[in-house]
Specification:
With 474 residues, the protein is α+β, with helices and mostly antiparallel strands. The chain folds into three domains: 5-45 and 236-310 and 420-473, 3-Layer(bba) Sandwich (FAD/NAD(P)-binding domain); 105-214, protoporphyrinogen ix oxidase, domain 3; 312-418, Polyamine Oxidase, Chain A, domain 2. Helix content is 35%, strand content 23%. It has 16 helices and 22 strands. It has helices spanning 14-26, 69-77, 117-121, 128-135, 151-159, 161-176, 185-188, 190-199, 202-214, 235-244, 289-296, 301-308, 352-355, 384-399, 424-436, 453-473; strands at residues 5-10, 32-37, 49-52, 55-58, 64-65, 84-86, 94-98, 101-104, 109-110, 113-114, 227-230, 250-253, 258-263, 268-272, 278-280, 282-285, 312-323, 335-337, 346-350, 364-372, 407-418, 441-443. Helix 1 links the parallel strand 1 and strand 2. The longest helix is centred in the C-terminal third of the chain and has 21 residues, at 453-473. It binds flavin-adenine dinucleotide. The site of flavin-adenine dinucleotide has 38 residues, from helix 1, strand 5, helix 11, strand 17 and strand 21.
Length: 474
């Protein structure tokens, strides 16, 4: 059969798989063939869920942010809505390590600022001076002009240095495994930059938004908590996408490292390691910037420059299983983050079996530890045993755990988390301009406008739409 459209997707993470899914829907009324190439022997990218010792363990992401609808919409499309699992509503709180102990974030605290004054005033996390300086945000006017700001500059200007070091650095730095001195405020905490612009003060804006939501005048009440997962973990989303793209026209290749992409008279030639080049009309690349530079850096000088200026951080996730009676800690939260000023190897810890019930037997306790990021690249050189030891030692200290874990599993994610540093918006514009000079080639993924799963899905859907419009207009 002659194909109207021959399309390739490179990368089999959530971005690539979502792209394949949307492309197959948009081309449903056409004769098309689609091949997806994934370098690893399995699909999912940094999403990896396993069952070990009777427990469901997540090697990468474990939650889907519900405020952005793109992931929930895909979950609904895939018929997975009944499989959504919510976090335990009784324990929806986070802790922060300070001087070797864990303290709760005050109720109403939203990532980097309070939306309720009274609980904030009584927190033990900050000194009286630090709290007063934070509340000065209510009286400091907005900054409308000037250079792009880093997260640390934005926070210091509005709230002072103490909250930056004790709360914001581990919270924001933890999400991006990045350096708040370099991360762009506009690209990583845009909602707070916007609150400054619209309300004059971040705290006043948060209080206003909160009272609007409480009085029912705001956005219609969230149906879920801020985060959800699926029965079977986040890997269930990968499995459902693979199932939904199962068809004669679609081939999902694993252990297929794409070595080069070149322009030809009729479209694009793609070469997988150890194989002859294949011809495609259009290609959608769903890779972190680090891998994109290697693959398409030579096609356009501006593209190469801009992509290479988006560094990718590496990190490690360790799952540790304990008997519940190994600790007398009450685990009345979902986990904690650790400021860089604390003397630990871990940057965060998650109480996985508390956050999502039923992930392991009742008499067990499953924890996750996060290590690495741009502030500790050296850890990537350590052996697995060394990493297990360090993760256990830090968890044991904070959580009063006696004895060793009964089971452990770790995953290393090398160069997987793009860093939205100062100048990121300019770089993304430069990349978009370069892509105009490469018709038929498209990019999607976590390097441009959001690293979360919903952002990746949105990026894949948008690029799939553009690709289909381009092909159909030819
Ligand atoms: C440890 C960790 C925890 C996270 N937690 C959360 C969370 O709880 N919630 C959330 O929303 N987000 C979370 N994120 C972010 C989110 O999971 C990722 O941004 C997202 O999954 C990235 O998906 P992707 O498909 O764009 O990239 P990836 O998952 O990195 O997939 C890219 C794929 O491309 C393949 N590839 C690379 N080069 C080639 C090539 N030349 N040829 C063929 N294949 C190639 C790679 O092998 C990889 O499988 C987390 C990220 C990490 C690392």
């Amino acid at each position: 059969m002659t194909m109207d459209y021959r399309v390739a997707v490179v990368g089999g993470g959530i971005s690539g798989l979502s792209a394949a899914y949307y492309l197959s829907r948009y081309f449903a009324d056409s004769k098309f063939s689609l091949e997806l190439f994934e370098a690893r022997p399995r699909l999912g990218g940094v999403i990896e869920t396993v069952t070990r010792d009777g427990c469901l363990m997540e090697g990468g992401p474990d939650s889907i942010f519900t405020a952005k609808d793109d992931a929930l919409a895909l979950i609904r499309d895939l018929g997975l809505q009944s499989k959504i699992v919510e976090t335990d509503s009784e324990r929806r709180r986070s802790l922060i390590a300070t001087e070797g102990e864990l303290h709760p974030l005050p109720p109403g605290f939203v990532m980097l600022a309070p939306s309720e004054i009274l609980p904030f005033a009584s927190t033990e996390l900050l000194s009286t001076k630090g709290k007063l300086r934070t509340l000065m945000d209510l009286f400091i006017g907005p900054r409308f002009y000037g250079d792009e700001e880093s997260v640390s500059s934005f926070i210091e200007r509005r709230f002072g240095r103490e909250i930056l070091l004790k709360i914001v650095q581990p919270m924001v730095g933890g999400i991006y495994v990045g350096d708040v001195e370099k991360l762009s405020a506009e690209c990583t905490i845009p909602q707070f930059v916007e609150l400054e612009r619209t309300s004059g003060s971040v705290i006043a804006g948060l209080i206003g938004r909160r009272s609007k939501n409480l009085s029912g005048n705001g956005v219609s009440g969230a149906r879920y908590g801020m985060f959800v997962s699926l029965e079977g973990g986040i890997g269930a989303l990968v499995d459902a996408l693979v199932e939904a793209t199962r068809s004669e026209q679609i081939q999902l290749h694993t252990s297929a490292l794409v070595k080069s992409i070149n322009r030809t008279e009729s479209g694009w030639a793609l070469t997988v390691e150890g194989q002859a080049a294949k011809q495609f009309d259009s290609i959608l690349l769903c890779l972190p910037s680090h891998d994109l530079v290697d693959l398409v850096g030579d096609l356009d000088a501006d593209l190469s420059e801009a992509l290479s200026e988006i560094p990718c951080a590496s990190s490690i996730v360790v799952n540790l299983l304990y008997d519940r009676n190994q600790s007398d800690y009450d685990f009345d939260a979902f986990g904690f983050v650790v400021p860089a000023t604390e003397d630990t190897s871990i940057i965060a810890g998650s109480f996985s079996s508390v956050k999502y019930k039923g992930r392991c037997p009742e008499d067990k306790l499953m924890l996750r530890a996060f290590l690495g990021g741009v502030l500790d690249e050296e850890i990537m050189n350590c052996s697995d045993d060394e990493i297990f030891d360090r993760a256990h030692r830090d968890l044991a200290r904070f959580l009063n755990i006696k004895g060793k874990p009964v089971s452990t599993w770790l995953r290393r994610w090398t160069h997987s988390m793009p860093q939205y540093q100062l100048g990121h918006k300019r770089r993304v514009r430069q990349i978009s301009a370069s892509m105009q000079r490469l018709p038929g080639l498209y990019l999607a993924g976590n390097s441009f406008s959001g690293v979360g799963i919903p952002d990746c899905i949105a990026s894949a859907r948008t690029s799939a739409e553009k690709l289909v419009a381009f092909m159909k207009a030819r």
